[in-house]
Task: inverse folding
């Protein structure tokens, strides 16, 4: 059974249709990246799937059922800019938020919950920052805190919106190690990604998106110059060796 | 001074103290929901409700007036949301418009109260600037009960409020219903405002919601401490303001409460332990000294 099935999904912002007729399936245990130019609807796609943005048409099934019934199996790492980092709280507290469902509503966190949160922080290499004010963390550290908060949810399917945007090389490596671990544990990860150079190294599946799905499949087969050209409109210069150079504007 | 010993005054004091705590807590929620102005808009929007309720029932019973004020404030909130979601007008502009229109409407209606047989505008004037001393036992009981209920709601859902304010999208992912949270938030905000208008008045009620959390922010980096502190500052401001206004005859309560909390804000701004001006100055000075003591950094010269 597919982890995620999307059929004819459409979404819009006011008058502009951002996504039209988007259909795809995600198999379990895959590490997929969604790539496309700015304004292609990558973030909107994730938000619409998670019902954070209204869906105009189409249907979405997670593990064969609607989102409402299996919410605890779905984890989400939003874009770092989506929250106010000046909020008075520390890293541990943010990670603990991922456990609120398990703690139970209207109950207070116990020591055991805090220990699990500390473990998650250790996993992303942030244990020494547990008591640090979130406003005092660097961008990469904030991203790792968000990742830890998602890990603690112990979900089966993860959505991540540009987790590698604006982080340094070390954080990028740390995050990718964790994503691979998730995959090895049989979990499924869907990542909005912006750096074409690293797609082949990091992800086993790729989904090209620009308002609609242009191509989707195994990276080794789908990540071709042709598809990149179709998605980005042929203006991209592909510099990495082995894929061949795309330069249709010159032709 | 003997007035301070009267049991009526002591009851009033307890109720304004509770009101202050409730406002401090609610203000904290509004502050992080970036809706400080919302409390201002809603308190002004409550005025026509008070006047209309009085015109309809011809009694100055707090319960009836609170119902009128709540309906009016909720209608105001509804208009703000409608304007925000259906037009391109931003929320703060919508609040400014609703605030002015509703308050203007209330003021226009006030003379009608004067003309009615039992009309005593003097009694309703208390709703504009607040007159805690004019509250009777039943008013005090109602106000204290509602304020205590609000404080309880905030404390019970503390964890949920924090998540709701910090990252609502994530909260939704955890199956916390944003719709329910929004409704509860709006309801307790409106109730806080309307129970406060007899003691503090519609014009200044918002100050009791806005100033305590801002003052508390200067002292702490923890949401829990900020909430506690904001509640305490609100409670103290309510109690001190009520006491001062009781000392003179006919002194309005609202302005004294607001001046008290204004003073506390000023002190927090200067001496706040986390963000106060003094601490920032000292930190900067020490850092400068530290840098200067080390001396100029060794210069890396080219070619070596």
Result:
């Amino acid at each position: 059974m597919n982890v995620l099935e999307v059929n004819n999904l459409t979404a819009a912002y006011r008058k502009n249709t951002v996504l039209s007729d988007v259909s795809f399936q995600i198999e379990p245990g895959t590490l997929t990246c969604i790539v496309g130019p700015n304004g292609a609807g990558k973030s909107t796609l994730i938000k619409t799937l998670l019902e954070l943005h209204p869906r105009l048409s189409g249907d979405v099934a997670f593990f064969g059922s609607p989102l409402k019934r299996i919410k605890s199996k779905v984890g989400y790492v939003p874009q770092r800019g989506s929250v106010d980092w000046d909020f008075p709280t520390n890293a541990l507290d943010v990670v603990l938020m991922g456990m609120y469902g398990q703690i139970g509503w209207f109950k207070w966190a116990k020591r055991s919950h805090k220990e699990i949160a500390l473990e998650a922080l250790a996993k992303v290499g942030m244990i020494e920052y547990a008591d640090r004010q979130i406003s005092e963390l660097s961008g990469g550290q904030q991203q790792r805190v968000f990742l830890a908060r998602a890990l603690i949810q112990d979900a089966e399917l993860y959505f991540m919106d540009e987790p590698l945007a604006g982080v340094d090389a070390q954080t990028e490596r740390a995050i990718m190690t964790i994503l691979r671990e998730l995959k090895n544990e049989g979990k499924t990860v869907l990542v909005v990604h912006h750096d074409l150079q690293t797609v082949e190294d990091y992800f086993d599946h790729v989904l090209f998106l620009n308002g609609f799905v242009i191509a989707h499949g195994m990276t080794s087969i789908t990540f071709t110059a042709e598809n990149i050209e179709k998605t980005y409109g042929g203006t991209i210069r592909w510099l990495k060796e082995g894929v061949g150079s795309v330069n249709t504007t010159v032709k | 001074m003997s007035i301070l010993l009267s049991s009526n005054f002591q009851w009033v004091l307890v109720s304004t103290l509770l009101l202050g705590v409730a406002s401090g807590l609610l203000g904290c929620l509004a502050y992080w929901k970036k809706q400080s102005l919302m409390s201002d808009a809603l308190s002004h929007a409550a005025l026509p409700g008070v006047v209309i309720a009085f015109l309809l029932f011809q009694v100055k019973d707090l319960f009836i007036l609170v119902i009128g004020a709540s309906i009016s404030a909720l209608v105001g909130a509804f208009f703000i949301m409608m304007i925000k979601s259906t037009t391109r007008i931003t929320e703060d502009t919508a609040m400014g418009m609703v605030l002015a229109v509703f308050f203007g409407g209330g003021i226009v209606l006030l003379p009608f109260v004067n003309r009615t047989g039992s009309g005593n505008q003097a009694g309703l004037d208390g709703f504009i600037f607040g007159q805690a001393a004019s509250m009777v036992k039943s008013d005090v009981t109602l106000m204290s009960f509602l304020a205590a209920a609000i404080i309880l709601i905030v404390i019970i859902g503390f964890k949920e409020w924090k998540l709701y304010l910090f990252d609502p999208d994530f909260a939704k992912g955890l199956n916390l219903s944003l719709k329910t949270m929004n409704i509860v938030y709006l309801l307790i905000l409106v109730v806080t405002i309307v129970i406060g208008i007899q003691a503090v008045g519609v014009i200044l009620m918002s100050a009791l919601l806005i100033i305590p959390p801002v003052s508390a922010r200067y002292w702490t980096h923890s949401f829990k401490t900020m909430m506690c502190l904001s509640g305490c500052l609100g409670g103290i401001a309510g109690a001190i303001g009520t006491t001062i206004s009781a000392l003179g005859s006919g002194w309005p309560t609202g302005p004294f409460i607001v001046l008290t909390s204004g003073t506390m804000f000023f002190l927090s701004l200067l001496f706040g332990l986390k963000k106060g001006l003094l601490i920032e100055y000292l930190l900067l000075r020490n850092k400068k000294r530290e840098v200067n003591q080390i001396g100029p950094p060794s210069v890396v010269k080219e070619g070596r």
About this structure: Chain B touches chain A through 25 residues (CB under 8 Å).
